[in-house]
Amino acid sequence: MSPTTRRSFLTLASGSAVALSLETADLKGEQLPGQPPSQNSGSQDKNFSNVMAIAAHPGDAFFAMGAPVAVATHLGGQGSLLSLSLGEKGSPTIPTEQYGAMQREAAKKAAAIIGAKALSLTYPDGEIPINEEAKFTVCDLIRQYKPLTIVTHWKGSWHKDHRACYDILDDAIFYAGLPSLVRKEPAHGVTRVFYADNWEDATGFTADTYLDITAVFESWTNACSAFPMWRGETGFRYNDYYGSLAIARGCLSNFHRAVALMSPAEQRVQHIRTP
Ligand SMILES: [Zn+2]
After folding, report:
1. pLDDT band at 16 (very low <50, low <70, confident <90, very high)
2. Which of 9, 49, 228, 259 registers the highest number of CB atoms within 10 A of its CB?
3. Residue among 21, 130, 2 at smallest CA distance from 71
4. Of all residues in the chain, what percent carry a pLDDT higher than 90?
5. Distance of CA 118 from the midpoint of ligand 1 (Å)
6. Domain ranges of the chain
7. For residue 6, how far is its CA from the centre of ligand 1 (angstroms)?
8. What is the 152 CA–ligand 1 centroid distance (Å)?
9. How far is the CA of 201 from the centre of ligand 1 (A)?
10. What ranges in the chain are assigned the alpha helix state H?
11. Assigned superfamily of 9-24+43-268
12. pTM
């Protein structure tokens, strides 16, 4: 069995950052110049056996959150990508209805490339509501797909839909895990939440976790290229940005390619036992 299929995630605590790798070969005690030595702090593979990206728009789900989902499927686990809207108002030239259908089709195609499932809700682009209906809808999808890890938007965003997604998720994850809240599916507790490194959500974003995406970089970027906007057709050069960001984050974490993630404050708490 090759090292990449061995589910050999290790966690390295390096200062305040954690590095998660697919391959033990990358983790032979090497450290970056001037950085404190890393320490093993346990395997994390279980949390990446089912990863769900939940985003405001399909582009966010695939470009900013898709690589961790690709890691899950690469390891033989399950991956899904949910967008709360189709991002149908994202094109300056194509009518919204037509563009929404194109986005849905692109998401389906992109998900198939990385062996994941594309899910979409149809809240209006630019007007995603923060209400109980949306929170329970997302809660039900979390209960149905049972992710151990969710990757979503950080709240420090200039985009109102991204902030709405953050708020919806905060309560949806709570509802999903509440056994006394009776829905169609039984309660499901999400183990890990990570906020994605998204160019639109950069205010106050601080990376504390680096995920090695070397093994999935090619399939993930191929998946992203199913979207015309990946190549800059709506004005932002997503391919150049996220492609080079994976290189830059890889430099910082000593992986060939990596994505940076941010944990919620309560997830960063560590318990150090004295024997
Ligand atoms: Zn967006």
Report:
1. low
2. 259
3. 21
4. 81
5. 16
6. 9-24+43-268
7. 34
8. 11
9. 9
10. 58-59, 66-74, 96-113, 132-145, 160-176, 217-224, 238-253
11. LmbE-like (3.40.50.10320)
12. 0.89
